[in-house]
Amino acid sequence: MEHQVEFPDDLAIRDAETTILLIVMDGLGGLPMDPTGGTELEVARTPNLDELASRSSLGMLLPVAPGVTPGSGPGHLALFGYDPTQYLIGRGALSALGVGFDLASGDVAVRLNLASLDERDRITDRRAGRPSDAEGRRIVERLREGVELDGDVEMFLMHEKEHRVVLVLRGSDLDADITDTDPQATGVPPLVPEALSPGSKRTADLMRSFLTQARDLLRQEEIISGLLARGFARYEGFPSLRERFGLGGLAVAGYPMYRGVARLVGMEIPGAPSSDEEAVELMASCFGTAGFHFIHFKAPDARGEDRDFDAKVAAIEAIDIRIPRLVELGANVIAVTGDHSTPAKMGVHSWHHVPVVLASDSARPTGVSFSEAECRRGDLGAFEGKHLMSLMLAHAGRLAKFGA
Predict the structure, then answer these.
(1) Which residues of the chain register pLDDT less than 70?
(2) CATH architecture of the domain with residue range 20-86+239-395
């Protein structure tokens, strides 16, 4: 059987001293609130991004496939050059890696939401009012002390951020082919975790025990009175950026999950910034220690999920203020895009294309500003997100030609 060519893996990697900077504005893509208006990015005042776009190649990025709405994990894996339909990982493993937990082969990780339930066990708030980190840590400590699992299984429970918690199960005969318990709705009870394959039955049984004990323990809490489980994942490890592309990687992100997906592909994590300003300065202090640099900004996605169009516009404008500091670091290639769209009009992730700017000495400027309208006219056209890495490597002079 003939070998199926895979790009960029089957191209020779050239040694180069060039640096790449990927700036991800989470949930960047949007929609107009009315037919005559602009998207959040088109309405936002972004002079610095516009200046960068005016000397860059532009295009529209399809995170996974037409009509497919990506989660943050698949969206970021695509940006890092990993086909999200081939490199599958659940949210739980990314969260565990993000909080710095050293997963072992065979561990099962799951993301938990602290949630509010009424006296009839119906969900009233899937995020329990987004509690403070201190309150989240208090609840986690209660669960550690009060929940016990039978058998030889070790249980590790860690607070991630606000309402997010990570549970890791370590033991024999564990698998992660299990249904989520989050119905993605209020007014209904949590779902029951069900094994979708025989190998996952033990894990599902353990999860039912864990969630029942947690509900009994939290029943008297005023706000955080239950848990929702999602993103079950059995960890086996991925090939690193260095193994695939000859690149060392460095990642700066405030939210643990995004540090997790970066660790999954072998990036170094220099710290956990608490603000966008701190994130930019942390990147500046470490820049040049790797060939590939990734910085993440969360606010556009969060405000889109809040259905707050004006707040998402403001979030984009706040990031634009940080762009000159990042540009002056001197990366040979700068890409700015999002991992997916989160239109405030919809209040959730969507399948829509995401605008992308690619700046380098080899860019072919085709626009005057950074917006969906300009990027649709750009020379990069519309392409799958997994190909962004090939483009960045090519612009950085790190890919040999294909064929004789």
Answers:
(1) 1-3, 12, 404
(2) 3-Layer(aba) Sandwich (3.40)
